[in-house]
Amino acid sequence: MDPGRAPLVVVHGEAHREIPPELAAFSVGVSATDRDKGALITRITERASAVSAILDDHAGAIERRETTGVQVHPGRKKHEYFGNIETSVVVHDFSDLGVLLAALAGLDLTSVSGPWWQLKPGNRAGSDVRKKAVEDALDRARDYAAAVGATLERIVEIADEESGGMHRMMRADIADPAFDLTPQVQTVSARVRLKVVITDPVIS
Asked: I need a labelling partner for 28 at 20 to 30 A (CA). Which of 6, 19, 148, 191 fits?
């Protein structure tokens, strides 16, 4: 058979899997205003140290912590300065996460955002779901081929669809003063496009 004239079936395959999150990320920021820049720097440094002390108390649960920004600039009022320090934190142990967030939020002029639930980089769920998506595409191709009395001969193309293979990162607000947090299930999805050469259809 001339490959250029071989009959093709083009199908899409999808797969989805829900799994518990493995990480929770949040950010914490401290701020201050003062008419004296030196005093301002001292105040935000002291508040950042208070944040660090609380994080140190929960070091066993923390995957990583990073300073993501420092700002010191003139405020809205004349002869006033504003400053803040932002820290991002990722934890792998959720057992005391509510306690940790409540302790941080209780500090003076401190803001807390998050948590954002995540999967660890390299989680095998993505690979497993991609394989399932290919299997789904092959099943569809077989169905189409069988409908015209043909069988699958060979695969000529497998391609990811743009919308597939991504971990959805979800967020849980911490508006509840009790900080009673329930980790959100993560959905891992994959979508592929498959081109398959089939045998000559038998059309009666």
From this structure: 19
Do 150 and 15 form a contact (C-beta atoms < 8 A)? no
Do 127 and 83 share a structural domain? no
The token pair at 184 is 């959100």
pTM score: 0.71
DSSP letters spanning 137-190:
HHHHHHHHHHHTT--EEEEEEEEE-TT-S-BPPEE----STT----PPPEEEEE
Query: What local confidence, expressed as pLDDT, does residue 134 receive?
Result: 93
Q: Which range of residues forms the domain containing residue 165?
A: 7-20+122-198
How far is it, in rounded angstroms, from Cα 62 to Cα 148?
A: 58
The pLDDT assigned to 174 comes to 40
**Distance from C-alpha of 25 to C-alpha of 76, rounded to nearest angstrom:** 32
